[in-house]
């Protein structure tokens, strides 16, 4: 079973990807972590992503992701991809590449969340300055309001303001809405209400794809 998972910031797709990987025995690929690791090992890539702040070219991400997947998972079966593909182009090339290997994507799980709820959740995010642990004042509160379990101070990221979150959501919508349409046409789209509790979402996904 090969899955991809999509959803706006705050939809909990990272959490669901981890839970699904555990409960279904899937290889979990997270594109953000992956690109950070790649940038650490390659100064040229680090320059583009972290110094110039540019997006990495689609063609090159595709080459890196597919090379990595084939190394980690030679038979290309039983994986969940989180954060990739996120555009129609990325999806189409991945689909064609898998088809050449005799493989396919079985489901694209799409977690929905209203803009209002997305902003509420993201602006409630707090990170410990000492251990980097992430809390959420709404969905995953710390033991005390301004302190981590380790005693460190909890801070809000500078770009987690409603204005910046709104802009990020608009960009996300512009890129992702066309992809959702294509996934629907390919009959692999599974839309799930991301405003339910974590356990309910997981249960619904597993019951549908099983
Ligand atoms: Zn801490």
UniProtKB/TrEMBL annotation:
Task: Tell me which HAMAP family the record gives.
Answer: Adenylate_kinase_Adk
Which EC number applies? 2.7.4.3
Q: Name one GO molecular function term.
A: AMP kinase activity
What's this protein's family per the entry?
Answer: Belongs to the adenylate kinase family.
According to the UniProt entry, the note on domains is: Consists of three domains, a large central CORE domain and two small peripheral domains, NMPbind and LID, which undergo movements during catalysis. The LID domain closes over the site of phosphoryl transfer upon ATP binding. Assembling and dissambling the active center during each catalytic cycle provides an effective means to prevent ATP hydrolysis.
Q: What superkingdom heads the lineage? A: Bacteria
- Enzyme class, first EC level, given as a word: transferase
* Protein residues bound to ATP: 10-15, 125, 134-135, 196
The protein's name:
Adenylate kinase
Q: Which Gene Ontology BP annotations are present? A: AMP salvage
Organism classification, top ranks? Bacteria, Candidatus Woeseibacteriota
Origin organism is Candidatus Woesebacteria bacterium RBG_16_42_24
Where is this protein primarily located?
A: cytoplasm
Quaternary organization: Monomer.
For this protein, the record's Pfam families field holds:
ADK, ADK_lid
Per UniProt, AMP binds at 31, 36, 83-86, 90, 157, 168
Q: Which InterPro entries has this protein been placed in?
A: Adenyl_kin_sub (IPR006259), Adenylat/UMP-CMP_kin (IPR000850), Adenylat_kinase_CS (IPR033690), Adenylate_kinase_lid-dom (IPR007862), ADK_active_lid_dom_sf (IPR036193), P-loop_NTPase (IPR027417)
Q: Where is the Adenylate kinase active site lid domain?
A: 125-159
Keywords carried by this UniProt record: ATP-binding, Cytoplasm, Kinase, Nucleotide biosynthesis, Nucleotide-binding, Transferase
């Amino acid at each position: 079973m090969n899955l991809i998972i999509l959803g706006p910031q705050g939809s909990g797709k990272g959490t669901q990807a981890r839970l699904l990987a555990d409960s279904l025995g899937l290889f979990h690929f997270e594109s953000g972590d992956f690109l950070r690791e790649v940038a650490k090992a390659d100064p040229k890539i680090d320059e583009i992503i972290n110094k110039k702040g540019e997006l990495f070219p689609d063609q090159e991400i595709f080459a890196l992701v597919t090379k990595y997947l084939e190394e980690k998972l030679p038979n290309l079966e039983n994986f969940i991809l989180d954060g990739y593909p996120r555009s129609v182009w990325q999806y189409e090339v991945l689909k064609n590449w898998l088809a050449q290997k005799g493989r396919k994507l079985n489901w694209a799980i799409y977690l929905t969340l209203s803009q209002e709820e997305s902003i509420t959740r993201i602006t409630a995010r707090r990170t410990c300055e000492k251990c980097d642990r992430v809390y959420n004042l709404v969905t995953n509160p710390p033991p005390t309001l301004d302190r981590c379990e380790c005693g460190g101070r909890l801070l809000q990221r500078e770009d987690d303001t409603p204005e910046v979150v709104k802009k990020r959501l608009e960009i996300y919508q512009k890129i992702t809405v066309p992809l959702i349409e294509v996934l629907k046409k390919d009959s692999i789209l599974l839309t799930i209400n991301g405003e339910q509790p974590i356990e309910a979402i997981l249960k619904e996904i597993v019951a549908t794809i099983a």
